[in-house]
Amino acid sequence: MLNSRAWRAAEIPAANGHGNARSIAKIATAIACGGELDGIRLLSSNTIEKALEEQIYDIDLVVLYPVRHGLGFGLNSKERNLGPNPRSFYGNGYGGSIVVMDPDANTSFTYAMNKMIIQFPDPTDPRADKLNETFSNIVAKL
Questions:
Q1: pTM metric for this prediction
Q2: Using an 8 Å Cβ cutoff, are 45 and 35 in contact?
Q3: Sheet holding 89-92, edge to edge
Q4: What is the dihedral of CA 132, 72, 39, 141, to 10 degrees?
Q5: Tens digits of pLDDT across the chain (142 residues)
Q6: Spatial distance between the Cα atoms of 57 and 69, rounded to a whole number of angstroms
Q7: Torsion of CA 74, 96, 27, 7, to 10 degrees
Q8: How far is CA 17 from CA 2, 3, 141, in A?
Q9: For residue 66, what are the β-bridge partners?
Q10: Which of 49, 53, 99, 103 gives the lowest tally of CB atoms within 10 Å of its CB?
Q11: Which of 68, 64, 135, 70 lies closest to 98 in space, CA to CA?
Q12: Buried b or exposed e, range 57-74, using 16+ CB within 10 angstroms
């Protein structure tokens, strides 16, 4: 169903953005670097700051563990440690893909797999978790 024309054409703001790792990484880089990349502004720095404002920090009734969210993004928390900088934030994709942006280090990383490991209701992928751990260690040394 996820690769059907109907699914891909549907307008589901929280569920069906489509892209490959390179395109997602390009957007993430722009966001991590203040909203601009290669002279193209995608978001204002004010919009990014608004996205980082905590909206909720509570048990998610789908995944059944605490989540911390801003506007459109997950935020760094003790349950979802994204690295040493508290302003790091992320987006998850179906099957375990992830994008992490760290505006304090002006860096990001993106993981989109060729083959999804679906472990509903847990949206994480052990491969992505290991990459996030490596990313966190690199950012800590910057």
A1: 0.81
A2: yes
A3: 56-59, 66-69, 74-75, 89-92, 98-102, 107-111
A4: -30
A5: 767 888 888 888 777 777 888 898 999 999 999 999 999 999 999 999 999 999 999 998 877 889 999 998 999 999 888 889 999 999 987 777 889 999 999 999 888 877 666 555 555 667 777 887 888 888 888 7
A6: 6
A7: -100
A8: 11, 12, 32
A9: 59
A10: 53
A11: 135
A12: eeebeeeeeebbbbeebb
CB hemisphere CA count around 33 (13 angstroms): 16
Half-sphere exposure of 50 (CA within 13 A, CB side): 8
Count the domains in the chain: 1
Contact 125, 54 (CB under 8 A): no
- Compute the distance between CA of residue 122 and CA of residue 126 in angstroms, rounded to an integer: 11
Query: Which residue range forms the structural domain that includes residue 65?
Result: 5-141
15 close to 94: Cβ distance less than 8 angstroms: yes
Say which CATH number the domain at 66 has.
Answer: 3.40.710.10
